[in-house]
Specification:
Layout (H helix, E strand, L loop, with lengths): L1 E4 L8 H7 L5 E3 L6 H8 L2 E6 L6 H5 L6 E4 L9 H6 L3 E3 L6 H17 L1 H9 L19 E5 L3 H10 L5 E5 L5 H7 L2 E2 L3 H7 L2 E4 L13 H4 L5 E5 L8 H8 L4 E6 L12 H7 L4 E3 L8 H19 L17
Helix pairs in contact: 1-13, 5-7, 11-12
């Protein structure tokens, strides 16, 4: 039996091998840069462990022995989940390996915006020191409302971190039940736009789906003034032209993001380049998940899901749960 790590970005496969090799399962680390690579190297694999490789319908159709596609991480937008479901292949993610890390990264971006750290640092690097800081907007955090668009694991952890720091925590998530809402201890609003009109800080926590594509747009931004906006979910949930317009106005004071519209950014795209270099932007290269512990955990947990499938068990985190009717 073989597991193919389709596009290994880490330095070694030792964590995966600790789980799989004792069970007689081969770990293949041949890097796949194309559909052809995935098909040729995946013919004998029952499982893919995937970082950013595009797992398309063509790839899935060409690999009848492939039973499960396991994403190193949470978002599965690089996997054709519908095609996998139709073909009876499970799509699995690892949703809980970096909750603390991503929430803390969102908090760090928020605090950079609240204290205007990048702007003050730029002044020092340009030779300044004795300045009048009053023209730069700096919020007193304890008097601000924090708004969360989406209220999953990471958003809830961020709310836990920030509850003692802010005036109140509000969230919008239509998929949270009334029972979950009552247990949360936070205030739920009826629309995502409400957060932008009532909060000076908004953090985005949405998966990228057809329903959330460019979900955050000018109808949200126009409700805000001097907003601190943070995104640690997916770049495509924001309408990029509307974001640029908002950055060039008083709607957005600071934009901190660990994700982008294309990853890596398309530097030939004038809008993306202007956002990337905008004085109000602070962007990190999709590293919010990272700590020395989480890097090991995600690899071990992904391998454990593959092992469950090898033993005839169901994985713990099936994304396309409807596939079970086809197995």
């Amino acid at each position: 039996m073989k597991v193919l790590i389709t596009d290994m970005r880490h330095s070694s496969s030792i964590e995966e091998e600790k789980v799989l090799t004792p069970e007689g399962i081969e770990v293949d680390t041949t890097f796949c840069a194309s559909e052809e690579d995935l098909i040729s190297n995946g013919k004998t694999a029952f499982a893919f462990l995937v970082s950013y490789a595009k797992i398309t319908q063509r790839v899935l159709e060409a690999l009848p022995n492939l039973k499960v596609i396991i994403k190193y991480g949470i978002g599965v937008d690089n996997i054709d989940v519908s095609a996998a479901t139709e073909l009876g292949k499970m799509v699995v993610n690892v949703p809980d390996y970096c909750t603390e890390e991503v929430a803390l990264h969102a908090l760090a971006l928020i605090l950079n915006g609240v204290r205007m750290i990048p702007q003050f640092n730029k002044i020092v690097k340009e030779g300044g020191w004795e300045i009048d800081p009053e023209p730069i907007v700096c919020y007193r955090l304890s008097q601000q409302n924090l708004g969360l668009v989406g209220f999953g694991r990471i958003a809830r952890k961020l709310a836990y971190f920030m509850k003692p720091m802010v005036k109140s925590v509000l969230f919008y998530d239509p998929y949270i039940s009334e029972q979950q809402y009552e247990a949360s201890g936070y205030h739920r609003v009826s629309s995502s736009e409400d957060l932008f009109s009532s909060c000076s800080i908004v953090s985005l926590h949405l998966p990228f789906t057809p329903q959330t594509k460019e979900f955050i747009n000018m109808k949200h931004f126009e409700k805000a003034e001097n907003l601190i906006l943070v995104n640690t979910s997916r770049g495509g949930i924001i309408h990029k032209k509307d974001l640029l317009s908002a950055l060039n106005s008083k709607h957005i004071l600071f934009w901190g993001s660990d994700v982008f519209f294309h990853e890596p950014p398309d530097r030939n795209d004038k809008v993306e380049l202007e956002i990337l270099n905008h004085p109000k932007s602070l962007i990190t290269p999709h590293v919010a998940w990272c700590s020395s512990q989480s890097a090991k955990d995600v690899r071990r947990m992904a391998a454990e899901e593959a092992l469950r499938v090898a033993k005839g068990q169901l994985p713990q985190n099936i994304v396309n749960i409807e596939v079970l009717s086809k197995l």
